[in-house]
Write a structure and sequence with these properties.
heterodimer, A: 309 residues, alpha/beta, TIM Barrel, two-stranded antiparallel sheet, 10 strands, 44% helix, B: 203 residues, mainly alpha
């Protein structure tokens, strides 16, 4: 049966190829976790996983090929675990080109929610900077553009809103960190049609609970929580102590998940953006986006516990 | 940005200690064996200090200015700027210093370097020798690999410290103006290393 020979070859080759592909893809299968918890962006209802990925410091590795590959591995693990939102800024050194490098290496995942910022004191320089950032990322358009630390926001915000109206960006926001300019943040939130606000919020830094988070709920503004681990110092402090026995009630396996679950369980918070350069930490962080979510009483207990450490 | 006072040094640090020290190593590996040449130039300057010839001041000033130019271009503008956007501004600072060295020391011949037993003389020579011989040892003494050693004429810190030492040896009031940039760099780099150290210490 001469016609069977090539068919057999194809079958064998196909089986070999499938086996090889399975072997290659196995690590990604192993990385895959349960679908992460999502929350809606109030202005559209589009849902985002409650844990994103920050790039401050961790992705600023210049042209160091080994470190760039490590960042790519972090992004691969993040997407394999169902992550979507990656946040960066022109202020973060080479973080944007490093994200672009990972996109070239891994292929840009369709799930990517690209969040970047405009950071220049010159209003007229904003569009050029955004275009440069877009080139670094290698994306057709950003999903979210934010005015970094409210720098020259009076000039940038109208430009970003105009870009949104033209369909050149999907969402617009503002950012601050570590409690700076909260009065200005409130003023912009109350008077401008922004989709996102990014603030510092964690189990110890809770000032935003008083006014900004309620205002975000009232105005239908999504909230991104930055510096969830206080750039690592918070996690290093709590790691000296054992997890409380009741942490298991919310499916928390480690301190990173404890801290992240506290943040993302606030009704106003859409997602937290921990930054890391380690794949193991990405997996830990993404674990906070699964399992039970603490209620208000348990959240109070979590805060009191960490404050007492 | 009227809230600058609320930022700590650690808030302004854009990179991790690991990224920074690997950058030093990669710079050394790229330029090897250029370190031997720049150390040789340093030893040459030391030899010139013993020769009070009329052209000595011009020669030392031009050599040092050349090394400031090299460090500004090869390290600050082309290497460090990849992880620290402020490095390109630092490069301009270095350019200002090299122009002053060329103008005051090289062209006008207003700098003559005279070792002496005065406090400034002893301190100056000590700083120059320290920058040349001891500074590269800091990496291995700190448990980091030799490849991360910072060498005079290749990296800004030992170059700036050596320049401060030489200017303390120099005669003429114009040396004080030339001290501004090297001392400013020592402050900037010291603050960076302090922030890196506090980050590494808590890691």
């Amino acid at each position: 049966m001469p016609s069977e020979t090539p068919l057999s070859r194809r079958s064998v080759l196909g089986a070999v190829a499938a086996g090889a592909a399975a072997a290659v893809l196995r690590p990604f299968d192993a990385l895959a976790q349960a679908a992460p918890i999502t929350k809606p962006i109030p202005s559209t209802g589009e849902r985002l996983p409650v844990v994103g990925l920050g790039t401050w410091i961790t992705f600023n590795v210049g042209d160091d090929a080994e470190l760039r590959d490590e960042c790519s591995a972090v992004m691969a693990a993040f997407f394999a675990a169902g992550g979507r939102l990656i946040d960066s800024s022109p202020m973060y050194g080479s973080s944007q080109p490093v994200i672009g490098y990972a996109h070239q290496k891994l292929g840009r995942p369709p799930a990517l929610f690209a969040a970047d910022k405009v950071w220049t004191s010159s209003g007229s320089a904003g569009p050029e900077q955004i275009e440069e950032s877009r080139g670094y990322w290698g994306v057709r358009r950003f999903d979210l553009l934010q005015v970094h630390n409210l720098l020259a926001w009076e000039s940038h915000l109208p430009q970003l809103l105009a870009m949104k109206a033209e369909g050149r960006v999907r969402y617009v926001g503002i950012t601050t960190s570590e409690g700076r300019r909260h009065e200005d943040i409130e003023r912009v939130m109350a008077s401008h049609p922004i989709d996102f606000v990014q603030i510092t919020y964690n189990v110890l830094d809770r000032e935003v609970e008083d006014r900004i988070l309620p205002l975000a709920q009232e105005r239908g503004i999504a909230v991104i929580a930055n510096r969830p681990f206080r750039e690592g110092s918070l996690i290093r402090t709590v790691k000296r102590h054992p997890l409380p026995s009741w942490a298991g009630e919310i499916g928390v396996m480690n301190w990173a998940q404890f801290i992240l679950k506290f943040i993302v369980s606030h009704p106003a918070v859409t997602c937290a953006i921990p930054a890391t350069s380690k794949v193991a930490h990405v997996k830990e962080n993404m674990g906070a986006a699964t399992g039970p979510v603490p209620d208000a009483a348990l959240r109070r207990r979590m805060a009191a516990h960490v404050e007492a450490l | 940005m009227d809230e600058w006072w609320t930022y700590t040094l650690s808030d302004l640090l854009l990179f991790s200690p690991r990224t920074y020290y690997r950058m030093l190593q990669r710079h050394n590996e790229t330029l090897w064996p250029g370190q031997i040449l720049t150390l040789g130039l340093g030893l040459g300057i030391m030899g010139l200090l013993r020769r009070p010839a009329a052209w000595q001041g011009r020669a030392i000033s031009i050599i040092v200015a050349t090394l400031w130019a090299w460090v500004a271009w090869s390290f600050l503008a082309r290497r460090y700027a990849a992880i620290n956007w402020a490095a390109s501004y630092f490069a301009w600072l270095f350019a200002a210093e090299l122009l002053l060295l060329v103008w005051i020391g090289g062209i006008r011949g207003r700098l003559r370097y005279r070792p002496s037993r005065s406090i400034a003389g002893v301190l100056g020579f000590g700083l120059f020798a320290l920058a040349l011989a001891f500074y590269p040892l800091i990496a291995p003494l700190s448990g980091r690999p030799w490849q991360q050693s910072e060498v005079f004429g290749i990296f800004p810190d030992p170059t700036a410290i050596a320049t401060v030492g030489l200017l303390l040896l120099a005669e003429g009031s114009q040396r004080w103006g030339l001290l501004i940039v090297p001392l400013l760099w020592c402050f900037i780099s010291g603050a960076t290393l302090w922030a890196l150290g506090s980050t590494a210490a808590s890691a």
